[in-house]
Amino acid sequence: MKGITGHKGYLHGLIGLLLFIPLFFSACEDQRIQTVTRTEYEPVYMTEQEFQNAVQLEEPRQLEKPGKIYLYNGYLFVNEINKGVHIIDNRDPSSPSKIGFVNIPANKDIAVKGDRLYADSHSDLVVFDISDMQNAELIVRKEGVFEFSASKHPGYPYQPADPEKGIVVDWKKVEVEETCQGDCYNGHRGIFFDSQTGALSEAGSPSSGGIGGSMARFAITGDYLYAVDDQSLFAFDISSSDPTKVSKNDIGWSIETIFPYEQNLFIGSASAMYIYDISSPGFPEQLSIFPHFTACDPVVAEGDFAYVTLRNSERCPQGVNRLEVIDIQDLVSPQKVNTYQMLNPHGLGIDNGDLFVGEGDKGLRILDATDPANIKQIRHISDIKAMDVIPFDHVLMVTGKDGIVQYDYSDINNLELLSTIPVVKE
Q1: Do residues 88 and 96 touch, judged by C-beta distance below 8 A?
Q2: Which PROSITE patterns does the UniProt entry name for this protein (predicted)?
Q3: Alpha-carbon span 197 to 190, nearest angstrom
Q4: Element (H, E) at 336
């Protein structure tokens, strides 16, 4: 019996050794030295003094990475993401002329009314006198009024910001070499995305401000500037040259856009459309929430209907690609009318039933929305990149990675190319 027991013990030991050997070599394999190169986002810093002194009017420059655009009294204001604002004389859309560039570090959003240009700069609100477009002058800086800022990283992986190095005014992609034992994978890896794309559409008459965008976070109505960050809605009284912050409403999570229409604000988030009444302009009141599938979400409105594009992207990987039409006759109880499949919808704008949807790299879609329950496609232009659109007075401004393209849509069935302001690649 002892012999048998000893033999079994030997077999068990041998089996255990055989099982251990591959684990041993596997463990050794995991400890190999390897060097990998990856791309990640690195913060760009300025000192407080550099940040304050950088705001100034400069000579016109080329478009490199255009973001939000704003049309006012024939002038086009184009945000250069985190850099500042191009001022372009667009009174003749067939021959736009660059006037100058306002250097504004960490700028993403803009709005204009009268002789005033309003812009964000990190967490500050800056106001410029543009009564002379060729000599825009900073007149007011309201520090720390916004809770959103350029310090929020635009994608993964990223290097953590260090407040001791200064103010984060931008992010740049850098190549990083890493030497490690075993698998160099770490928790910072992920999907890259750009957070700044947008869409534009009609925002009201010149007396209420200009024409802003469905992806804008700034909107002007009457004597009030409205702004949203990731969670809140802010109202500023701009009746004087020195804006006053009047109120703040906590809305929800992942707030993305704001669009003014008549006496209401239509606010888009990743999960819902919110409708606010601004009949008491300093104190917006929530009327309703219209939930939708989680996706990147701009919204515009005309007549009794709101139009929402939902997009699947790196930021919204579980999203869908479609256009939703919502009946807003009863603002307290909006109802979905219809859904239309899209390729990759970004910005949208509508003018008297002519609906324009930017499909990103997939082009521009032109739709007949005179019957919102039965929208029909007129044309799909697939050879341009369309992120943002502004339709106004039969001129369609389309922004994308390649620049700003303008069309005459007097004949909606036969768009006529007017001009192109190209992007200059770095």
Answers
A1: yes
A2: PROKAR_LIPOPROTEIN
A3: 20
A4: strand 335-341
Which of helix, strand or coil describes residue 160? coil
Mean predicted confidence (pLDDT) in 298-320: 80
Would you call 116 exposed, middle or buried from its count of C-beta atoms within 10 A (0-12, 13-18, 19+)? buried
> Which residue has better confidence, 65 or 9?
65
pLDDT at 293: 60
Whole-model pTM: value is 0.78
Kindly give, in sequence order, each residue whose CB lies less than 8 Å from that of residue 6, ignoring residues fewer than 6 positions away. none
pLDDT band at residue 282 using 50, 70 and 90 as cut-offs: very high
CB-based contact 308:292 (threshold 8 Å): yes
Please give the radius of gyration of the chain, using alpha carbons only, rounded to the nearest integer. 26
Phi, psi of 167 (to 5 degrees): -90, 130
What residue ranges define each of the domains in the chain, with the CATH number in brackets?
44-149+193-422 (2.130.10.10)
Rounded to 5 degrees, φ, ψ at 28 are: -65, -40
Distance CA 119, CA 125 (A): 6
Q: Show Cβ contacts of residue 275 under 8 Å, excluding neighbours closer than 6 positions.
A: 264, 265, 266, 267, 286, 287, 288, 289, 290, 328, 331, 334
pLDDT 10s digits, 242-268: 999 999 999 987 888 999 999 999 998
Say whether pLDDT at 193 is over 50: no
